[in-house]
Amino acid sequence: MVQEILYSEVVCIGAGFSGLCVGAQLQTMGVENFRIYERESSLGGTWFVNTYPGCMCDVPAVVYSFSFSPNESWSSVYCSHTEILAYMQNVSRKFDLDRRTTLRTEVVDAVWDNGKKRWRVTLCDLASGRQFQHECKLLFTGVGQFGRPRTVEDLRAKDHEKFSGTIVRSTKWDPNITLKNKKVVIIGNGCESLLLSSKMSTHSDCRTAGTGNQILPAIADEVESVVQLVRSRHWIVEDERTGIEGAFGFFGRNMPFMAPAFRQFLVAFLERQWLGYMTDGFSTFVRGTHERAARAYVKKNAPPQYQELLIPGPDVPFNCKVG
Ligand SMILES: Cc1cc2nc3c(=O)[nH]c(=O)nc-3n(C[C@H](O)[C@H](O)[C@H](O)COP(=O)(O)OP(=O)(O)OC[C@H]3O[C@@H](n4cnc5c(N)ncnc54)[C@H](O)[C@@H]3O)c2cc1C
Known about the structure:
By secondary structure, this protein is an alpha/beta fold. It contains 8 helices and 8 strands, in the order E-H-E-H-H-E-E-E-E-E-H-E-H-H-H-H. The chain has 2 domains: 2-141, FAD/NAD(P)-binding domain; 160-237 and 287-310, no CATH class. Helix content is 28%, strand content 16%. The protein has a 6-stranded mixed β-sheet with strand order 3-2-1-6-5-4. Strands 7-8 form a two-stranded parallel ribbon. The N and C termini lie far apart (53 Å). Bound molecules: flavin-adenine dinucleotide. Flavin-adenine dinucleotide (FAD) is lined by residues 13-19, 37-40, 45-46, 50, 55, 57-59, 64, 106-107, 142-144, 146-147, 192.
């Protein structure tokens, strides 16, 4: 049986922020003939997949959102994954993207047909396993960069298979896990890495690896103990809860014409950090200022026995951690 080949002017792979942005812009430009394919059961990408404790954005949500679709009611500066996902669902509804998105469908291949001047995209309906094809003039890939998290095997941890507890990654968080009164080990101190945790009886060991720094404060109060394994130290800075979301909301509700300017001001304010990324003397000075502030913050807030572990040495200047 000859299968029908679908066609639209544009196909987008992925319904994360990138896919939604493309869809919204096409819609705004009046291009209606497009389709977004997403392999997960929901749009959202990163913010649908990641549900680990403490998962949130690490740039102010006012900026971590579309300039063309501002949200005046962010609840805090750095918002939780649930709030970001809800925002994305609103954007999808607002720009009528739900009906242009096919979920649980994975792009497995894409070939440029030079004769037809079209892409031929092969897809798999993950529910049925059925493959089909879709042609388009323009293929946009919004597949993200964190779709294939490292596994515990990748870590090459010796004898990890002898560990009797459950190991869980931050990216594949199991909502049924309870960490209450458990002994937990977190591997890693990246902001967006992976976490392993285990579900065991109260008195056995519990091991956690990965995205340590968001998870650690989120679970610290409920676990019996927590140990964080890190390859190298990194700078810990004070959480600047500035109330900007309140100011943005105020502008949005009362002086909407001012909201874009305020957001732009915020972008410029955050972008000033590039001054600390150069190799010249001024950048070195800027990094030194940040280092002094971070050092003072840790000294003021961390128990003395941990301070040495929490403050990097001269081998890791501020903004210069590479691994
Ligand atoms: C825990 C975490 C926190 C983060 N915090 C921040 C932050 O605070 N600030 C910041 O700037 N960035 C942050 N990031 C980076 C974040 O990934 C990006 O900001 C942004 O969400 C990327 O959007 P995207 O649409 O490009 O990719 P994703 O969000 O990864 O979306 C890609 C989508 O494509 C789908 N897909 C992939 N391959 C296929 C295929 N073959 N067929 C069909 N569908 C496919 C995936 O299922 C996914 O839904 C964070 C990342 C993580 C993991």
